[in-house]
Amino acid sequence: xxxxxxxxxxxxxELKTSELEGRYLIATRDIKVGxxxxxxxxxxxxxxxxxxxxxxxNCIKQLPSVVxxxxxxxxxxxxxYCNEDxxxxxxxxxxxxxxxxxxxxxxxxxxxxxNFDIETFTEIRMVVGLLSRYYQDNLxxxxxxxxxxxxxxxxxxxxxxxxxxDDVFDxxxxxxxxxxxxxxxxxxxxIVEFIGELFNLVLLGSTNITTxxxxxxxxxxxxxxxxxxxKINEKxxxxxHKTRCNQFGIWTKNNKCIGVxxxxxxxxxxxxxxxxxxxxxxxxxxxxxxxxxxxxxxxxTISYIELDQPTQDRRDELKYGYYFDCxxxxxxxxxxxxxxxxxxxxxxxxxQKKCTGLYYSKSEVPILNTLTTNHEIHLSCSNCNNINIVSxxxxxx
Length: 397
Prior knowledge:
397 residues; alpha+beta; 3-stranded antiparallel sheet; 11 helices; 15 strands; globular
């Protein structure tokens, strides 16, 4: 990734690469319970289509009152803000990149528009946001200079890992084919076609793909735009594959998904159905915490899905949602070993009904064998903040 020097600020992590695992993280030292392993801010995040009028496009948080926000972008009427500070922090960047494309998302000239459900429109908002950055930064060489936030970002460099568009392009992508998932392939084909029409409409004023013959009689400016649209079309399918495998949902404490985010550095944590880490999300910011003691040399993993499911259900969700076959010890071990691992990881499940969070320690816990047997360790749910008070023996395998 482009910010390799930043890894020096996260003691105990090393980024590795293999043909089977892709890029992944290992512990370079023994790690205690509750350590902050990595803090990062998403490269790009969008609010959910259903909750965009009650969730802030900048901080990706929903007001407790769940009332419609009053501050919005008056150019596209597609993004809302929770206060003036958030609007001022984001509006110029938004209008530099995705605004003019968001403005035409619901245009009646786009023939595929009526065929998409709400979730697909959230995905389209994400993909269009990333492609608008590719258009401005790479094709026009017109990168947005965020003078307002540069000082804040510099101050946070030692605490947060940041990402670039190149990091997004470097993400692993699992190809979706007719054989692997015909329904997903059909939907992706429709999204690719829709995005092609959208960029044609915004940049050329028409949804029709201009033919080579027509292009030959066009002005040089139009020809340039046609070539750019071709390059955008070539990128769109790949970006969809990458975001589907690597994006994170942003959830409220009552389990509503208010948005999705792409954070390449977060994607270096591979999945396991018996993870040793969990991600704690705060809007578009994420902190990765160790659930239990991790030995030097072990891979650092999180769960991409709800863990309290039978093995085949977990494997099916990962296969059809993330396009890979899970080979973690809990999925591939023998039945006796699997039962033991089920019992072990289930201790970390939040006890609140319908909550899918995991219990973790907000603060670093001393080495467990140095604590008395009745020492109280306060664990919090990664989703709802429910408290669970345990003793050191809770972590015994």
